[in-house]
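Worked example 3. Consider a protein that binds inosinic acid.
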Amino acid sequence: MQSVAIIGAQWGDEGKGKITDYFAQKSDYVVRFQGGNNAGHTIIIGDKKSVLHVIPSGILNEKCVSVIGHGVVLDPTVLKTEIENLEKTGLSITSKNLKISENTSIITAYGRILDGARESKGKTKIGTTGKGIGPTYEDKIARRGIKAFHLLDKALLRERLEENLAEKASLFERLYEVEYPALESEVERLYELGTYIKPFICDTFSLLDKAFEQGKNVLYEGAQGLLLDIDYGTYPFVTSSNTSFGGIYTGAGVPGRNVDAVIGIVKAYTTRVGEGPFPTELFDETGVQIQTIGGEFGATTGRTRRCGWLDLPMLKYSAKAAKLTSIALTKIDVLAKMDKEDKIKVCYAYEYEGEEINCAYPGLDMSKVKPLYKSMERFEENLKEGKIGKNLQDYIDLIEKTVGVPISLLAYGPERSELMEVKKL
Ligand code: IMP
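Given these inputs, the predicted complex is written out as structure tokens:
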């Protein structure tokens, strides 16, 4: 299989890092195509835990080339820290195994400050990660963005930043009343970082074009989840990029290329960070139990994740909107560890304006749907022996039947080895 895509099928935090790491071991290239350091991909190998925010998870595999595509928004300070931390673990990060598109958009101090000011002083709270993601994408679309190649020429960088700051200065001073760094100090800071990242910057379009011509294997690593997609998600409570399949074509720079498998990563239950509707959210002890057993605290911000039951109408929509060819079901061990007397519930449909609806099409008002649940028996805990018990099989069957997509992989723990291939991709 020459190309595989990993796409979060819920609201992010589905366990994509672990599945990406699994496929990265068989890939020549791993490409991030959207998002920035709002993502946090956790990978556990033996007693080593790595949390990656901007560098593709392929970096943990010596033979892989990790590519940051032009659809990503990159905070060079975070990148530098991440490289230094990885090097402390013995990994070598060089211009051979890390490539950054010259057209990647750069997150500046101004973007971060604007994100924070809007969240703390603005009217509508999205509950962003505060990393400057939204403002950086806004600047890109408004053609006043800073691209990676701008960091390499001080005069050009100053010119671009000056234009970038022009409108923001009045927002900072008059609307939000926040402090911001002077133009010259931001020019110096970014130019210095530019010198640091210069060896990694290249034309990733031609890099990938040639890789395909040579028959190399390419893995696309999505961040966040389908329901956070700027176009397909629960707007306005979304991130500012295309987290869906379409994001690969625009953000990795591989227009129209065949993608052999699109694997939707689905957590066995649902979580959400930040604001926005969440039909199957649990507000009781069961929700707290899932949160505790599942360690549902953000890898990026440390925020507590809201927890709820698996939502199949939502997954059915995700499968259509992200063109999923199979599902990797993760964190099933969490439901297996719940109190014995508890039943597991799955939302199989919604009741909406007196009708039963089985697909969360975007026309639905998600804050008004009533989830309809099916009760299931708690799973047996024999996954380490590679056995799927009856209760888990019933759960798998219900998902496959309702969503219409096969489950190819089961993840039952944070370790690299706690993964089972149950069907061909
Ligand atoms: P932003 O991406 O920081 O602009 O945040 C927009 C929304 O996306 C907020 O609700 C965040 O909590 C959510 N979000 C962004 N990145 C992630 C992620 O990696 N996992 C889960 N939620 C995320």
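Take a moment to read the result before moving on. The chain has a mean pLDDT of 94. The pocket of inosinic acid is lined by residues 11-13, 38-40, 126-129, 131, 133-134, 223-224, 228, 237, 239-240, 273-274 (CB under 6 Å).
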